[in-house]
Amino acid sequence: MGPVFSGSVMTSMLLTQAAEIPQIVGGEAPAITQKNNPYVFRTSFGAQFSMPKLANYVRDGAKAKTVAILWVNNDFGKGGRDAFVKEMGTRNIKVVADISTEAGQADFSADVVKLKGANADLIFAYTNEEESARFLREAKKQGVKTPIVGETTLLGQKVLDLAGDAANGVKGHVGLTIDAPIDAVKSFAERFKKRFNYACDHNGIKGYTALYFVKHVTEKVGKFDSKAFAEKAHGITITPKDEPNILMEATWDKNGDIDRESFIGEVVGGKQKIVGTLPKLGTK
Amino acid sequence: MASFIQLLVSGLATGAIYALIAVGFTLLWQTSQTINFAQGEFVMLPAFFILIAMNYGAPFWLSCLIGIAVSIVVLGIAFKYIIVDPMLKHGVLPLVISSIALALFLKEAVKDFYSSQAQPFPVLVEASDVHIFGAVISSQSLVVLAVAIATVIGMTFLLNRTRLGRMMQATAQNPTLARILGVPVRRMVLYTFLLNAVLCAIASILISPIYLAKFTNGETLGMAAFLAAIIGGFNQVRGAILGGVILGILDNLSAAYLSSQYRAAFPLIILIIVILVRPQGLLGRVEERTV
Amino acid sequence: MNRAATISIAFAAAGAVIAPFMLKPFGIFLISMWAVLTIAAIGLNLTLGYAGQVSMAQGAFVGIGAYTLALLTQAGVPYPIAFAASGILCFIIGWGLGYPALRVQHHYLAFVTLAFTTIVFLLLRNEEWLTGGIYGVNAIARPVFFGWSTGKAMDYYFFCLGVLTVIAFAVWWMLRSPWGRAFVALRENPVRALSLGLDTRRYTLMAFAIGSSLGGFAGALFASLVQFIEPASFALNRSFDLLLMVIVGGSGYFMGPFVGALVAVLLPEWMRVTEGYYLIIYAALIMVMMPLAPYGIVGLIERGYKALTVKRKPPAPMLTPERTAP
């Protein structure tokens, strides 16, 4: 099993591919599964899966005609931004501002001024956790009224902690959450809390999913064989009926990307609340 | 227009913090030929001293005082005696390398022993907005600006109006002559290190609520200090202040009106132009070439 | 050159040839990386050790070299031409950068190169049409010479080692030529060199430009070694790493970069046991080393050797017990 952050994923990937060991990762950069590496699997959505879902929401849920994008200029942010812009194009939603920010950027005043100037129906923010928090603080400071929507990261606990009440009202796509209105997930979160004495975040579920993904596939293969594992795992669908601990029905496609139900969350009073469900995209 | 004023004020506030850091940087250079590549980390660190004090239950104001005191000991006294003094006889270059290693050391120490993630840091005043000419200016920016200006005024007063300050300046400008005139040069050099530590700690208190306390904060701040010092004039306190302010405003305006993808490049281009056209910096004196 | 130095270099060279046969693929990757970084460090050593200028741009030159090779070979340019272009381009850029910077005060090259490195990073990242932007360039070819393909790890290692050998001899020869002795004079006593009528600025500039071109060659090798390059690999940290390598090995010593690069490549592997604390320890070691032995490992060994053999003529700074295999 491998790292969660996209950057570290990229480097370790080369090594595990050479060693022919399947690697299960939590990173979200689209490029990870686009390198024809047959040994890499995700437990969280790649941006090329989550973006169409989110774009559907922007069109149908938020009914926006114009969007402004704020993204972080690294492999994570650029991937998400490119995918999002593409999805906006196919849905005839106009991108009126396209603002790149630096990883580790501290001062967002200039970016927020530009966002305000763009006058979009909706702001899409795709930055890392700390920068998201700094951005939200600055947006509140400058009195931005436009709804802000983002990916899982934007609603992460870390962002909520750092941004404080500046995060209220922000909506985001939640690929995976312990607050999901699904019983299996809820009971998992409770058990996790009891056992480790702290609240689980989505990375906890990623790890858990990875574990049972491996267990399930290995059982099907019948032995520990990394090559056979890799072959079997592509295109597999695991439902909670077959493997209760997988928590939710999930499909891995030929690239090792995962597809499953996901949610729309909103920050209310400093807490993330699930306000909607987005269906599985299905096989493309 | 409103957004322009907004950018100007927030740029000014950031610039004022840069100025504080750059002033300490030039003081060290003047008195001991120390090019401190860890200056940014010197600003990153005090925030963590304060957070640690607060974790032990101290109120925020007390923690700030403790943070400043610890900074004086660690970043002033210890830095001078442990890192700088043994290196001085080897010249400028080895000290540069040493301070690069020190920067790495401090960063990694905070990451491994405190946290690799950003930490919320208390604000000096509750955020509220002030409306000037239709622009929304946060009270935070104004407070930052006020504290920074007060610090600069206090420091200028210390340097220009007190006997101690004049001795420090004499040491900075010509140590040999100062020694002949009976100035305790060694003690004055130590005082500049202490002053630098205090300036860094104050800058840290001002910037951490905006930047959030994180081990990587020093990278941008250290770079800003260099740029400010060189653009303004490596050997003048006034120059460093001017350089800091220019840098803060330039960064904001270029990100908003030119290109946000290249925002980091504009200050560097200015730097190269200044070096080529006016190598002593905007307000600097010409220094005799030291080989 | 005295006998002890000759013998140790011969052993080290033999070690470098035998090593890959006893290593796993990852080990071969590491020693290939060592060869590549050594070339970059030799270049930086010319600037830092001989001309006494801090350059924070060696990482950027490695980057320019890497991208030049990657983009040219993918555009169909034959490998040898692309390889040569990497070094030549860096030489030209180095000259263009150093010329104005060295006109002014001497520590200003450090600041100009610092700015340069950041700007190069931004260009590599933002100019997506040319450099592939943040995703970098993929699937970079390894060369084939007269039917000898260097596609396999070990073959590529020998190619890197060959390039390193050629470059090391070229630099060694250059430093011993009358022309190159000016560099040494520059290191020994710049003021005297100046008063002897040596155009120090010109030689400093030359050292910097040649050093930069070696960075470019190293970058070209780097690109084919890792086969995937991205802008982040050539940010300021890479330049700092190279700088520390030269210092740790011993700046101004011919063998310094070899040892420094070896330490930089192997130390993280050896210090796996210390978990995440490796960088702290590395930084602390450098801080301890600087006041005690600012002349680096090779300098330390030379001085130790001198102390043992007081009566003999002091040896040239050429001595190193080198260990190649981890």
Q: Mean of the pLDDT scores of chain B?
A: 85
Mind telling me the C-alpha Rg of chain A?
19 Å
The CA-CA distance between the termini of chain B, in Å, is: 50 Å
**Helical proportion of chain B, percent range:** over 70%
* Cα-atom radius of gyration of chain B: 19 Å
Find the biggest chain interface.
B-C, 39 and 40 residues
Number of helices of chain A: 9
> Could you say how many structural domains of chain B there are in total?
1
Distance between the termini of chain A: 27 Å
Annotation keywords:
heterotrimer; A: 284 residues; alpha/beta; Rossmann fold; 2 domains; 7-stranded mixed beta sheet; 3-stranded antiparallel beta sheet; 9 helices; 41% helix; 19% strand; C: 326 residues; mainly alpha; two-stranded antiparallel sheet; 14 helices; 2 strands; disordered C terminus
Account of the protein in words:
The complex is a heterotrimer of chains A (284), B (291) and C (326). In chain A, α2 (47-61) crosses α3 and α5 packs parallel to α6. Chain A folds into 2 domains: 6-47 and 198-259, Rossmann fold (3-Layer(aba) Sandwich); 48-178 and 266-278, Rossmann fold (3-Layer(aba) Sandwich). In chain A, β6, α6 (157-163) and β7 (171-174) form a beta-alpha-beta unit. Chain A has a 7-stranded mixed sheet, sandwiched between helices. Chain A has a 3-stranded antiparallel sheet with strand order 8-9-10, with no helix packed on it. Chain A has helices spanning 6-19, 47-61, 75-90, 109-118, 129-141, 157-163, 183-196, 202-221, 226-233, and strands spanning 23-25, 40-42, 66-72, 94-101, 122-126, 148-150, 171-174, 237-238, 250-252, 258-259, 262-268, 271-278. Chain A is built from 9 helices and 12 strands. In chain B, β1 and β2 form a beta hairpin. Chain B has a two-stranded antiparallel sheet with strand order 1-2. Chain B has one domain (20-218, 234-241). The longest helix of chain B is centred in the N-terminal third of the chain and has 31 residues, at 2-32. In chain B, α2 (39-55) packs antiparallel against α3, α2 runs parallel beside α4 (92-113) and α3 runs antiparallel to α4. With 291 residues, chain B is mainly alpha-helical. With 326 residues, chain C is mostly helical. Chain C has one domain. Chain C is built from 14 helices and 2 strands, in the order ααααααββαααααααα. In chain C, a hairpin with a 2-residue loop joins β1 (144-145) and β2 (148-149). The longest helix of chain C has 27 residues, at 200-226. Chain C is globular and about 55 Å long. Chains in contact: A-B, A-C, B-C. The B-C interface holds B 35, 83, 86-87, 90, 92-98, 100-102, 104-105, 108-109, 111-112, 223, 226, 230, 261-262, 264-265, 268-269, 271-272, 275-276, 279, 287, 289-291 and C 48, 52, 54, 100-101, 103-108, 110-112, 114-115, 118-119, 122, 125-126, 190-191, 194, 240, 243-244, 247, 276-277, 279-280, 282-284, 286-287, 290-291, 294.
